[in-house]
Specification:
It contains 14 helices and 15 strands. The protein has helices spanning about 15-35, 45-50, 75-85, 130-145, 165-170, 175-185, 190-195, 200-210, 215-230, 230-250, 295-300, 315-320, 345-355, 370-380, and strands spanning about 35-40, 45, 60-65, 70, 95-110, 115-125, 160-165, 215, 255-260, 270-280, 285-290, 310-315, 335-340, 360-365, 385-390.
């Protein structure tokens, strides 16, 4: 029998599980305040749903052996969008939903083969609003959610915003294979590849300048307008920035607009963003999201109803960022009921029930203790905060 978890999987100790639960509940309370309803998408879906019409590569999906093409969800957006356009299609729009659960991704291991990574995510989806108003609500909700996490100043939360329309403006003058090669190099921040391309030097210089250009939305939009003229996307981003800047400042969150920022999954067509914090050794992405109207359209919605935005917070990285509990015992463990050799387990069970009726956590030492000192040692092993309830008739 194998005693190690599968490659990429992890065993969580009680403290880690408790921390995850509290973080998830804290975020859920915010979602509910904002009028979002909880849903529970399935972990197992058809591959065509999980691939979101080709936006997510099949290599990222953990496939299952079954009579039909099935896999484990690499994210929850596609499944929730499918439900929103089918079983929930009759509900009024905008439709506000949230979900929390485990997602699975398949990754190539350094030594070859595949690793299956599982992570706990919590996030929201907003359907049926095609205008910038949806992004304004969504990012305001993201900042409200982050506020409950009590991030430290040294973790320097950083909201990175991009837009697929900005990348389209950059690539409009190019054609064919070179267009896709330029897009790939910009997304990967590959200066060497751009410098090696068979392009006029002026085009290379302009691309490299864009690659290095990122900063406050106000400064970046001014530069973009000088280069591309007035565009509708600039007005939307300006309105969004004016709303978010004071909210972010109050929380110590820095907002940065990056013309070349694009997500890993090609799920989004519009605004894209991620929230990054400084971890102990490297930056940590704790949230991702954006607009995915094309996905909603592929799920069957039409017209202005084919609109969706959402974000997902990664609970495990957040827990590690905030500092994990030791896991020796959940912090609310309160009472150990122990009994002497002249008492009985039955009496201990009755005493435990009285604690439970008061809403107090209590567990039992199942075998009798020689004396009170032995019972106190048993309680200390379970944690310094454990209270002993000693039964000795």
């Amino acid at each position: 029998m194998a005693l190690q978890p599968a490659a990429g999987a992890r065993d969580l100790n009680p403290g880690q599980v408790e921390s995850n639960r509290k973080l998830s509940e804290r975020l859920a309370a915010v979602y509910r305040l904002w009028g979002y309803d909880e849903v529970s998408p399935p972990r197992v879906e058809r591959l065509d749903t999980l691939m979101a019409g080709g936006a997510i590569g099949s290599g990222a999906i953990v496939r299952l052996v079954a009579d039909e093409p099935l896999g484990l969800r690499p994210e929850m957006t596609a499944s929730i969008a499918r439900a929103a356009c089918t079983r929930l299609a009759s509900r009024p729009r905008p439709l506000r939903l949230w979900a929390s659960g485990t997602v699975f991704q398949s990754r190539s291991a350094d030594e070859g083969g595949l690793n299956i990574e599982e992570n706990l995510h919590s996030g929201v989806e907003l359907f049926g609003e095609p205008g910038i108003e949806a992004e304004m609500e969504l990012l305001s909700l993201l900042l409200a959610s982050v506020e409950t996490l009590d991030l430290e100043e040294e973790q320097r939360p950083h909201l990175l915003i991009g837009h697929t329309a900005l990348m389209d403006l950059v690539l409009a003058q190019f054609e064919g294979e070179s267009k896709e090669a330029i897009r790939s190099a910009l997304i990967r921040f590959d200066r060497l590849e751009i410098e090696a391309m068979d392009l006029p030097q002026a085009d290379k210089d302009a691309l490299l300048q864009l690659l290095d250009s990122r900063g406050t939305p106000e400064s970046q939009l001014q530069q973009l307008q000088e280069r591309f003229g007035q565009q509708a996307v600039f007005a939307d981003l300006k309105r969004l920035s004016e709303l978010l800047t004071p909210l972010a400042r109050d929380q110590g969150v820095t907002i940065q607009l990056d013309t070349t920022f694009q997500p890993v999954f090609e799920l989004y067509t519009g605004l894209v963003f991620q929230l990054v914090c400084q971890g102990k050794a490297a930056p940590v992405v704790i949230a991702r999201g954006g607009r995915y109207d094309d996905l909603v359209h592929r799920c069957g919605a039409r017209g202005s109803l084919a609109a969706g935005v959402g974000f997902s917070l990664a609970i495990d990285p957040i827990r590690e960022l905030l500092g994990e509990a030791s896991g020796e015992a959940p912090p609310d463990a309160a009472v150990l009921v122990a009994f002497s050799e002249t008492a009985s387990l039955e009496s201990a069970l009755q005493r435990q029930r009285s604690w439970h009726q008061k809403g107090i956590r209590a567990s039992i030492e199942l075998v009798p203790c020689a004396d009170r000192a032995a019972a106190e040692r048993a309680a200390q092993k379970r944690g310094t905060s454990i209270q002993l309830d000693w039964i000795d008739p």
